[in-house]
Amino acid sequence: MMIRIGTRGSKLAIVQSMWVKRQIESMWDNINVELVRIKTKGDKILDSPLSKLGGKGLFVKEIENALLQEEVDIAVHSMKDVPFELPEGLEISVYPKRENPQDAFISHSFKRIEELPEKARIGTSSLRRMVQLKRLNSNIQVVSIRGNVDTRLKKMDTQRLDGIILAVSGLIRLGLYDKITQIIPDNIMLPAIGQGALGIEIRKDDMKVKRILDFLNHKETELCVRAERSFLRELGGGCQIPVAANAKLRGNILEIKGMVSDLSSDRFLFKIMRGDITDPEGVGRRLADDLLKKGADNILREIYG
Q1: Alpha-carbon distances of 26 from 33, 37, 69, 128, 174, rounded to whole Å
Q2: Measuring CA to CA, which residue among 230, 232, 213 is closest to residue 275?
Q3: Cα–chain-centroid distance for residue 190?
Q4: 44-49: long-range contacts at Cβ-Cβ below 8 A with a sequence spacing of 24 or more?
Q5: Which of 84, 115, 203, 207 has its CA 20 to 30 A from that of 293?
Q6: Can you give the pLDDT at residue 14?
Q7: Which domains are delineated in the chain?
Q8: What is the mean pLDDT of residues 278-284?
Q9: Alpha-carbon dihedral of residues 248, 229, 79, 305, nearest 10 degrees?
Q10: Based on the number of CB atoms within 10 Å of its own CB, is 243 exposed (0-12), middle (13-18) or buried (19 or more)?
Q11: CB under 8 Å to 88, separation ≥6 — which residues?
Q12: Residue 153: CB partners within 8 Å, gap ≥ 6?
């Protein structure tokens, strides 16, 4: 049997899809897996910040279309790129064990992000990271940088930046953990919804593939990501707005931290919600509802407007 994985062509996406390929082939002797590289809109447009490109699914839509048209059998996504609304007929069926969801500070000059002086130049294309940087130090100069991990690391030198911020998970998967200067505590910078987690998307009616992949699902990761995505859904947000969340299991309790901010970080809303692990979506919704009552709805309307 052959299983075709739809994947972006970036180095990190290939590493992640190759990991899934190895897991499947080591579990099932009679299955071969091949990778089908698909270029997405987000991969084609590299000269604009993601927040200005508009729309949802910048890194998944073309792959999902290939899945619907049966050109591939499964899709491997970074969950932080996946909109909360999936196309009719598709589902995220498997959540492999999550890598560290936090952000990494990388710098040649400073050991901790808290030490950054006024007017330090920090590279990131993420509004979420930008507002949390501004909250830490309102005089930090945020420089928009895009591209793959290697490109961003080079831009730190070519653009004479004091540092850049990348996801810890991507650096670990690429074997670049030694590049990390500091893993940023989540009380300083909450990660993106789903950051560090992979999701395997399939056609809902493909029960054979679903049974084959079941062994890869990590229940704790699934519960935490479902809570985070429920939080995002209730807010009506996309992937490129100043919204963040991080969920963890503490015994039978699911704890989720969430934030919503305006672009200046003057109105910064933060809350911790706890609830039973049997209802992760409910915990995420209650967190969002609490922030909406505190003014998140006005903030998001202004940003979208």
Answers
A1: 11, 22, 28, 38, 21
A2: 230
A3: 11
A4: 46/146, 46/147, 47/146, 48/146, 49/125, 49/144, 49/146
A5: 84
A6: 97
A7: 1-96+197-217 (3.40.190.10), 103-183 (3.40.190.10), 219-305 (3.30.160.40)
A8: 98
A9: -130
A10: buried
A11: none
A12: 106, 164, 176, 179
Report pLDDT for 53. Answer: 45
Task: Give the whole-number percent of the chain exceeding pLDDT 90.
Answer: 87
The chain-wide mean pLDDT, for the chain, equals 93
Q: List the beta bridge partners of residue 36.
A: 6
Task: Tell me what pLDDT residue 91 has.
Answer: 97
Task: Report DSSP state, residue 295.
Answer: I
pLDDT tens, position by position, 160-204: 999 999 999 999 999 999 999 999 999 999 999 999 999 999 999
Task: Establish whether 262 is a catalytic residue.
Answer: no
- Active-site entry in 29, 47, 73, 81: 81
Cα 104 to Cα 57, 73, 170, 189, 245: the distances in Å are 24, 33, 10, 10, 16
Residue 174's SS3 state is coil
Band (pLDDT 50/70/90 cuts) for residue 49 is low
Is the per-residue pLDDT at 236 higher than 90? no
Buried b (16+ CB within 10 A) or exposed e, 244-264: bbbbebeeeebbbbbbbbbbe
Report the alpha-carbon distance of residue 52 to residue 68 in Å, rounded: 28
Q: Tokens 């998944």, residue? A: 60
Cβ-contact 9, 38 below 8 angstroms = yes
Query: Which tokens belong to 35?
Result: 């990778």
